[in-house]
Amino acid sequence: MKELYYLNKYFIKYKFRFLLGILITIVAQIFSLFTPKLISKSLNIIEEYIKNPIKDSNLIKQELLLSLGLIIGATIIAGFLTFLMRQTLIVMSRYIEFDLKNEVFQHYERLSQSFYKQNRTGDLMNRISEDVGKVRMYVGPAVMYTINTFIRFAIVILYMYNVSPKLTLYTLLPLPLLSYCIFKLSSEINKRSTIYQENLSNLSSFSQEIFSGIRVIKAYALEGQNKKIFNNLSQESREKNMRLAIVNALFGPLMILLIGLSNLVVIYFGGMMYIEGTIPNIGTIAEFILYVNMLTWPVASIGWVSSLVQEAEASQKRINEFLKIEPEIQNKNPNHAILKGTIEFKNVSFSYEETNIQALNNISFKVEKAETLAILGKTGSGKSTILSLICRLYDVENGSVTIDGVKLAELNLYDLRNSIGIVPQDAFLFSDSIKNNIKFGKEEATDEEVVESAKKAVVHNNIINFKNQYETILGERGITLSGGQKQRVSIARAIIKDPEILLFDDCLSAVDTETEEQILNNLFEICKNKTTIIVSHRVSSAKNADKIIILEEGEILQQGTHSQLVNQEGYYKELYLKQLSEKELS
Questions:
Q1: CA 131, CA 140: separation in Å to the nearest integer?
Q2: 212-267: pLDDT as tens digits
Q3: Does the CA dihedral 60-66-69-71 come out positive or negative?
Q4: N or C: less crowded end of the chain, CB within 10 Å?
Q5: Which of 319, 327, 320 is nearest to 126 (CA)?
Q6: Phi (first) and psi of residue 350, to 5 degrees
Q7: CA atoms of 177 and 260, how far apart (whole Å)
Q8: What is the spatial distance between Cα 456 and Cα 525, in angstroms, rounded to a whole number?
Q9: Which band of pLDDT confidence, cut at 50, 70 and 90, is reported for residue 476?
């Protein structure tokens, strides 16, 4: 149960609803207990009439009708109060579910890049949906029925004891056996529930990867192979779920058996006590049978509630594993500041922890405000790592990265990222309209600003040719668009933000040279008063930059202006001549 202690803060938050639910439950149970008393009274009236038929039959009828009316009234009131109890406690559980999902989601947003490299998306989705759903069943139905059970037990046993202490003792004899069975089954449910949830995460992760990579699956005709893998995972998941269901299924029959034993005990010992005269009338036996049956669902629910608690504990444990992870990137400065955009790297070295590959080694350079820096180099030379460090997706190990002379770790994290517009190498678009994808960079942007940004990114003409134009809904990851169109929409998204710093990570690789020339001309116009870093493998993207850096294996191989590097032997000159000849041939 210690894993579920984490949820106590939510019970405190919604304490008014929680306490009100308990109060309504107590009143509802009191009204529900009028029925056995009234039925007992009615049977006693009939018994007295049989023993003494001289009594006026009309008076008997009136008394029976009055009892019947009171029974109906008490039942209606108890039912209405039970409805209010559910509305109070179950609705509270929905609020807690909402809060917990938001807490998990916000924590996911704070976690660092390395976390997402080590965990699968399907598993993360399963924890925020399936696991939170299991927890909701604990804070809602499980808590409600637990409260209901304890209150009903306390009130019913008190009523039974006042009627006949001896018969009450006989009635409760099966309960110790019930408690032992619950303890044994609960521990087994907890173990099997954990195994099932872990397997379900594997199934979700595999499904998510297949759906995301469906084009690759079809291109390589791997549908049959992946179907077999999915069938195996589904079969394994079904087996785990069936093992859990078998244990859960034992509760119902077991509870009914034990309640049946209690009824037999009441009938037998109550009948013997009535014959002996210990019980004055037959109505007492009927009253006890009703009390026992009133305990049927609470007792039966103990098993169900116990399984809910065990499943919720297993799920909350999985949730807590993530919630306890501290983000590597912390916002250490709550004070806000306006950044101008002078970026400087001083002897920066960096290695990726998950691969232990050194991406940068003793890198130093400076980009003044409103300057444009181009970074070129072979694949894996560390170009994208520099942009990741500027965005503070990772913290530097050795050396320092500063903006306006202040180390990144000492800046307000949100001010830093709000001052940056980045177009990543892998242009990611959301399953939303093109307009909303562009407005992602600036939510309050007008339609005119959206169109203007699209024109600067040279994608406007493509968009207006779509049937729904800017309202066109994109598929997952922007699958509706071509690679070049996705890159240009991403560029429009960065432009509309109008940040102090613009970072372009090889974002023109999928466009033709003519379109690239148009975009670059627009970008250099836009970037006149902004600090800009362009990562590319094309000289055409770099030739108009104020500074150019050539990286190789994480180190600066060459640096200078376009004219300087063209006149030097090395990578840049070779790349320039090669691309120049390719352009002439085309």
A1: 14
A2: 677 777 777 777 788 888 888 888 888 888 887 877 777 667 767 767 777 787 78
A3: negative
A4: C
A5: 319
A6: -155, 135
A7: 14
A8: 10
A9: low
Q: Is 224 helix (H, G, I), strand (E, B) or coil?
A: helix
Whole-number Cα distances in Å, 101 to 125, 205, 206, 219, 473: 11, 19, 23, 37, 27
- Closest-CA residue to 437 (of 495, 384, 373, 396): 495
d(CA 434, CA 447): 11
Residue position matching structure tokens 């998950």 = 354
| Lookup result for tokens 């407005």 | 439
CB 429 within 8 A of CB 481: yes
User: CA 427 to CA 422: how far, in whole Å?
Assistant: 10
Identify the CA nearest to 29 among candidates 77, 93, 86, 62: 77
Match domain 2-203+239-323 to its CATH number in 1.10.3210.10, 3.20.20.70, 3.30.1490.20, 1.20.1560.10.
1.20.1560.10
The strand pairing partners of 534, in sequence order, are 374, 504
- What CA–CA distance (Å, rounded) separates 81 from 92? 16
Intra-chain end-to-end CA distance of the chain, in Å: 70
Q: What are phi and psi of 356, to 5 degrees?
A: 65, 20
Q: Are 495 and 453 in contact (CB under 8 A)?
A: yes
Asked if residues 122 and 206 have their Cβ atoms less than 8 Å apart, the reply is yes
What confidence score (pLDDT) does residue 53 get? 64
Confidence of residue 586 (pLDDT cuts 50, 70, 90): very low
- Structurally, at CATH architecture level, domain 342-349+364-419+502-586 sits in 3-Layer(aba) Sandwich (3.40)
Mean pLDDT of the residues in the chain: 78
- Give the span between the Cα atoms of 522 and 517, in whole angstroms: 9
C-alpha–C-alpha distance, residues 123 and 205, integer Å: 6
Q: Is 467 helix (H, G, I), strand (E, B) or coil?
A: coil
Q: Which of 387, 381, 364 is nearest to 505 (CA)?
A: 387
pTM over 0.90: no
